[in-house]
Every structure is written in C-alpha cells, then in structure tokens.
C-alpha cells in the first residue's frame, strides 16, 4: 500500500496535466467562443467578419452556425473544394475584392442554404460553373469586374434559383454563347453593363421572367427587331452610352411590359414613327444627351412625350439640329412659340408593282419610303405584318420591302403597304399572281417511265415525284435543267446496285437471293456450304481471340509489377524537384484600402453600383457622363406606375 500510494498520485497528476494541456490547445485553436483568430464574430447575428486580414486562404474553424461570412479584401487566390463544408446555415458569403483566380469544383459544397454569393473584383477568367453545383437556394450572384473572357452555354444552368445576376464590367469578355443564359427562368435582374459587347444584342430569350436589364456602355450601333425577343416581363431597360445610331422599326415590339426605358448618351437623331405604340405601360423615358433632329421625323415623338410621359420634361432630349432649333427641348417641338411645322404625309418612292410569278420562287414587293415612317403590310386575308413579325416565309425587311422566301399559289391576292408618319399616311397596293409551277413534259415523261419500278422500294425523296406529276415538275422548274440532268442519269445505276446488295432493308427488296430461313431447294445446297465455311471461320476467330486474351492478361500482370517498381522511383524524383510558386503581387492589399469594410447594402442599390465603381476605379477610369447616371432614381413600385396611365391603342 505504501508503495502504491505515490504511484497513483503521480498517475493522477499526469492525467490532470494532460487534460489541462488539451484544453489550452483547443482554446488556442478556436479562439474565444470558437471564432477563428483572424476574424471577429458576432454570435447573436451568427456573423463572422474577416476583412482586410491579408488572408491567403479561407481560415479554418469558422463556427458551423455562421449565417453570414465576410472574407472581403483579402488576398485569397483560390478556393479549394470543401472550404465551407460544415457551414450548412450560411446564407451570405462575401468573397469580393480578393485575388481569386480559381474556384475548384466542390468549393461551395455543403452550402445548401446560401442565398448570396459575392465574387466581384477578383481575377476569375472563366465562370466557375462547376462550383455552383449544390447551391440550390442561391438567389444573388455577383461576378462583376472579373477578367472573364467568355460565357459558354449553360454557364448558370446549375443555379436556376438565381434571381439577381451581376456580370457588369467584364471588360475582357469576347464571347457570349446563345445558350449562355439557358435555365435562368427565375432571373429578375441582369447586369451586362460595360461588358465589351459589340454589335448584336446577346440572346436573352431564356430569361422569361427578367424584369430589369442593365446593358449600358457596350456598343450597339443599331438595334434591330427581335433583339429583346422573349423579354415580355421586362419592366426596366437601360442602354445608355452605347453609341446607338439607329433603332429600327418595331425594335421594341417584344417589350410589352416595359415601364422605364433609358436611351440617354447615345447617338440618336430620330426614332421611327410609332416605336413606342406597343409599349402600353411605358411612363419613364430618358432621351437626354442625344443629337436629336427636331424636324418632321421627331414630331410624333414630341407629341407622344406630351401625351404619355407624365414627368417633367427634364428627362428628355434637346434639339441638336436644325441649327435654329439647337438647344430647344424636344418635347416643346411644334408647340406655340417654336412655330408651325410644315410636314407632309409619307411619299412612297418605290411602290410595289403587280407581279405574275410561278410558285416556289423568291418574290418581293417593294415599299421604299422615309426611314422614320411606320410601315405595315396588309395581306389578302387581312393579316398585318410588320418588321418585327416572325412569319416562316414572309418578312418585312428594314427598308419596307415585303420578301417572300417561297411564294405559294395561296399567296395570290392584293397586298397593301401602309406607311404613316406624324402628318398622315399613304397606301400602295399590288396584285400578286402566283401560278402553279410550269411543267416540263419532255423530261418528266423520261423521269416517270424509267424510274417508277426501280424507285418504288426507295421511298421518301423520289416517291412524291412519281405519284404526283405537278410536284415532281415544280422542283425541276425552279432550277435550270442542266443542274438536274446528271442526277436523273445517275439514279438508275445507283438503284440497280442497291437491289443487288441491299444494305439496310433486305426483306422489302423483291427478287433478292439471300433472304430468310426457308428458301427453295436449289438455293439450300449452296447455303449449306456457306454455313460450313462460316462455322470454320468462326471457330478460327474464337481460337485467335482466346489466345489474344491470355496474352493480354499475362502482359498486364507483367506491366503491373513493373509499374509498382517504377512509381516508387517516380515518387522519389518528384521530391527532388524544387516547387516554385508564383508569388502574389504585394500591391493587391494596398489597392483595396480606402473604403469601409462592410459596404454590402450599398452595392445592392443599382445606382450606387456606379458610385462604387467610380470610387474604386477613380485612378484609371474617370468618365464624365457617369456622374449623371446617379440622377435616375430607382422606382421599385411598378404597380403604382402601371395604374398611373393605361393607354388605349
Ligand atoms: C453618330 O451618328 C453620325 C451619323 O448620324 C455619325 O456620323 C457618327 O460617326 C456617329 N458617332 C458615333 C460616335 O458613332
Ligand atoms: C415642371 O417643372 C416646373 C419647374 O421646374 C414646374 O413649375 C412645373 O409645375 C412642373 N410641371 C409638372 C407637370 O410637374
Ligand atoms: C400578268 O398576267 C396577265 C394575264 O396573262 C397579264 O394581263 C398581266 O399584264 C401580267 N402582269 C404582269 C405584271 O406581267
Ligand atoms: C394569312 O396569310 C398568311 C400568309 O399566307 C398566313 O401565314 C396566315 O396564317 C393567314 N392568316 C389567316 C388568319 O388565315
Ligand atoms: C428575301 O428572302 C430570301 C429567302 O429568305 C433571301 O435569300 C433574300 O436574301 C431576301 N432578300 C433580301 C433583299 O433580303
Ligand atoms: C390606307 O389603308 C388603311 C387601311 O386599309 C386605311 O385605314 C387608310 O384610310 C388608307 N389610307 C389611304 C390614304 O388610302
Ligand atoms: C395569273 O397568271 C396566269 C398565268 O400567267 C394568267 O393566266 C392569269 O390570267 C393571271 N391572272 C391575273 C388575274 O392576272
Ligand atoms: C423544259 O425542257 C426543255 C428541254 O429540255 C428546255 O428547253 C426548257 O428550258 C425547259 N423549261 C423549263 C421551264 O425549265
Ligand atoms: C430533257 O429533254 C431534252 C429534250 O427533250 C433532252 O435533250 C434532255 O436530255 C432531257 N433531260 C434529261 C435529264 O433527260
């Protein structure tokens, strides 16, 4: 007992010491209340803030009940898979203003409750589509100001829950796929401003729920009808400062819900008559800083503005020409002191002419007139077509011409071109007479007699030609006969070959020798021989295959043994090679300094996007008109505006 006493005491002390040490270690690792050492935590708000700590990676030990994690303004270069694995309650993740180049697939796995992901002001060159996999509740994604070069098809297909997508300032962007926005059926807000888009509007048709589109500061010399196809829910559209010189007739016909349109800071001198007629809810229109021509072409616009735009005219443009009108308000045109305007109804310079034509040809009925007048075509059956109509065969071209890609006999009738401007309207009509295609009997007879029996098993292409003579002949008349001649000559020989050795449908071909199981006697003897030889061949083949398989197995085993040895050697060599990592530019943290750390609510506001941008880039991006954008007040209450004025058309 005497001997045992001190021993037990020592053991107890030892255990106690170990326990204390473990406790101290755990406390040191997790910091007070389980907060990472580089961060400050607010347990009540479940918020963890680790801004401007020079972090180069996501710090470990973030409490699992965190709802809001701010890692902005650090030097994180890459986000590894499972970086946030246990943060199932995280709702807001702020990774803006880092140096992120790479986001691994699975980087955000586990973030099943994330609704906002901020990645703006980083160095991503691709959309990290693979990392979006499990973000089933994501509503806001911020990718603004990254050197992304292309947006491929289905880039956001994994996050159909997305409602706000900010792709602004992707200045290196070269390509947007037609399927880029596929799947974003819930998207309400999209920013594509300053994205280096040139010429064509990207395909936005998948965005059926889109309500706000910011696409300013790109380059769109012309806006064509169909540019906004599918955007029937769009309420606000900003296309400022994009050098728009021409908006074609009916270009906005798809935007039936539009409430606010901003065309300021462009190169517009006039707009086509009735451009805004389909926009029954439009109440806010910004036209300032355009070189408006206050002639007859703009008369309708002035009247329309007075009638439908309730705000004070400050929103709107001033005249640039003619010289005596320069500086006048566009909206004051033709009112009182500016004097009476002498305008006349549109003159149709190139009127449509009667046309006799045979079916299945290209045809056109011209209707060239002043560029800013409205043009509509009245078809014989009462249908009206415009430049924006999407008919499979008949289109109204930008110059007013009615173009038939393929006239049919049923198109016969009177066509009326109706042109209108502020002063009146003019009509011009023409009769289109489509006759059935001419027959060429000499070649048709050859065609029918020679090929009928031979062609019969071959179906599709040739069958209709043989049964109905008119259909067969019509195709020959559309092209010169010399083009078709070699085809006719060659068909019989091709078909004779096909009857001898039928590759695809052996049972249909009549008189073929090798058919099925019960042939007549003379064929059976030769068939037996054939069977014998095939059996021998198959036997040989099986033997050879078996041999090859055995050889393969042996070879594989040998190779595996060899590999085991060589990998050990390879591992050693890898250790020897010195790994040189690219050092981060030390300026990255210094560039960022200067603003408050927690500016999230500010960025959400559309207007302050510009302010923020102006602040952060004031050294390299000072741009005068930008200041003026802050005058557009965001008006969230659409319903109020809609009920303000409903137009009757
Ligand atoms: C603006 O349009 C005029 C013609 O209307 C053209 O001469 C000029 O080059 C255009 N300016 C820009 C910046 O596109
Ligand atoms: C437009 O503004 C002027 C002065 O800025 C003001 O006198 C006038 O009442 C305003 N008109 C409307 C319709 O708001
Ligand atoms: C079309 O055909 C009719 C009848 O053959 C003829 O009277 C008419 O002049 C033709 N029209 C044109 C434009 O060739
Ligand atoms: C009128 O004619 C056009 C052209 O042939 C056709 O596409 C359209 O369906 C017709 N409309 C009606 C109501 O029949
Ligand atoms: C008229 O339509 C046809 C067929 O779509 C097309 O080939 C032709 O270029 C069009 N004409 C004009 C002037 O665009
Ligand atoms: C042109 O046609 C339209 C529709 O048929 C008609 O309302 C209008 O009065 C016509 N205008 C002229 C000048 O014939
Ligand atoms: C239409 O064209 C056919 C054939 O060219 C002609 O026989 C017919 O008289 C024409 N009809 C009219 C109304 O011009
Ligand atoms: C019909 O065939 C004859 C003889 O080959 C040819 O001279 C004539 O041009 C053809 N007609 C048409 C409309 O192709
Ligand atoms: C069409 O007919 C002409 C004259 O009848 C003949 O010379 C020509 O070879 C024929 N075309 C074909 C493809 O047989």
Automatic annotation (TrEMBL):
GO terms for cellular component: glutamatergic synapse; postsynaptic density membrane. It is a single-pass membrane protein. Residues 1-28 form the signal peptide. The keyword Amino-acid biosynthesis does not apply. It is found in: Membrane; Synaptic cell membrane. SMART domains: IG (SM00409), IGc2 (SM00408), LRR_TYP (SM00369), LRRCT (SM00082), LRRNT (SM00013). It holds the Pfam family I-set. Residues 464-478 have a biased composition (Low complexity). InterPro entries: Cys-rich_flank_reg_C (IPR000483), Ig-like_dom (IPR007110), Ig-like_dom_sf (IPR036179), Ig-like_fold (IPR013783), Ig_I-set (IPR013098), Ig_sub (IPR003599), Ig_sub2 (IPR003598), Leu-rich_rpt (IPR001611). Residues 458-478, 496-526 are annotated as: Disordered. One of its GO terms (biological process) is postsynaptic density protein 95 clustering. It comes from the Eukaryota. Keywords: Cell membrane, Disulfide bond, Glycoprotein, Immunoglobulin domain, Leucine-rich repeat, Membrane, Repeat, Signal, Synapse, Transmembrane, Transmembrane helix. The chain crosses the membrane at residues 536-556. Residues 322-435 form the Ig-like domain. This is Leucine-rich repeat-containing protein 4-like. It comes from Sinocyclocheilus rhinocerous. The gene is LOC107732976.
